[in-house]
Design a protein that fits this description.
This protein has 131 residues and is of the alpha/beta class. The chain contains five helices and five strands; from the N terminus they run βαβαβαβαβα. The chain is globular, with a radius of gyration of 13 Å.
Length: 131
């Protein structure tokens, strides 16, 4: 069973996503901010991270830079599932590659089914950039 770290500041959405991921057969841990996410990453050793880029105190980009600074966390696939429109972020391909994002989903246009399908794809295919 794949281990997923879900980083979502909205507690209601976190519960909805956690329940859907568990029903999808995943072992899920939830963090609501960057500091708890780093702590959770250290304890959990996730197979994949689902990240809201707009976090409280630190943003998701800062979190990923910190996470990627540790050699043991450099290869963990990351799917951004965010309220931030993709055009504001994915246009920067260098940044995208540098912090290791495998896919970017825009929450208002992404169903739970699509999120699960994306997770399945990222976990079964070698990590690569998907713009």
């Amino acid at each position: 069973m794949a281990r997923i770290l879900l980083i979502e500041p909205n507690r209601i959405l976190a519960q909805i996503y956690r329940d859907a991921l568990k029903q999808g057969g995943y072992d899920v841990s939830v963090a609501h901010d960057a500091q708890n996410a780093i702590t959770s990453s250290d304890k959990l050793r996730p197979d994949l991270i689902v990240l809201e880029i707009q976090l409280i105190k630190h943003n998701g980009v800062e979190f990923l830079y910190e996470l990627r600074s540790y050699p043991e966390w450099q290869d963990i696939p990351v799917i951004v599932n965010s309220i931030v429109p993709p055009g504001e972020f994915t246009h920067n391909e260098v940044l995208y590659k540098e912090i290791g994002i495998n896919n970017y989903l825009y929450k208002p246009q992404t169903s739970l089914t699509e999120l699960l399908r994306t997770i399945d794809n990222v976990l079964t295919v070698s990590p690569s950039l998907s713009l």
